[in-house]
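User: What would this chain look like folded?
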Amino acid sequence: MKNEETFPIDENDTDVMVTLEMDDGSELDCEILTIFDVEDQDYIVLLPVDENGEPLREDEVIIYRYFENEETGEPYLDNIQDDEEYERVGKRFQEIQDEVEE
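Assistant: Here's the prediction, encoded as structure tokens.
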């Protein structure tokens, strides 16, 4: 089994927020829930929030492939295109949530 890293945002952290620019030009504010690794690829889980920082929907998250520019450290995201990859990543995220709840 490969070494998998998880970087959860815990209750002692200030909410870490990002703003996504959507394809239609609108913006979506999101709280970063966690960044984790599956098979040497990092993924980020975002919770869409309103202008007050409240979740738009408690049960809806967005998961992207997560990368950092090796030279600048600037983060960037990429859509998950493969259904099998999305299922693996979703399963791992559910495991992380279950571990946190224990």
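The longest strand covers residues 27-38. If you want, I can go into more detail on any region.
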